[in-house]
Write a structure and sequence with these properties.
The chain has 5 helices and 2 strands. By secondary structure, it is mostly helical. The chain has one domain: lambda repressor-like DNA-binding domains (434 Repressor (Amino-terminal Domain), Orthogonal Bundle), CATH 1.10.260. A two-stranded antiparallel sheet has the order 1-2. Strand 1 and strand 2 (89-90) form a beta hairpin.
Length: 93
Amino acid sequence: MTPSEISSLISRKIVHRRNELGMTRRAVIKAASLHDNALYTYENNPQCRITAVNLYRISKVFDVSMDYFFKEIETIEELKTKVDYEKEEIVYE
């Protein structure tokens, strides 16, 4: 996955978890000690890279591990390794 694709996935995971918990952006910003526009930027501009510190803070507020934001990335990468792009067919091991 490209860095932009990873940032986009993390962005979607932040939005999903915040909505799942019924939290407002303001509540997350306050609980995670983020700058006023940081969460809005992370959620709406996937090109913006979230710092490890801010992702850690958000994970604590959301009561999830840092892995929560990366699980799908690992799955996608594993699937990509099973595809032979030159032949455009699945390689069975």
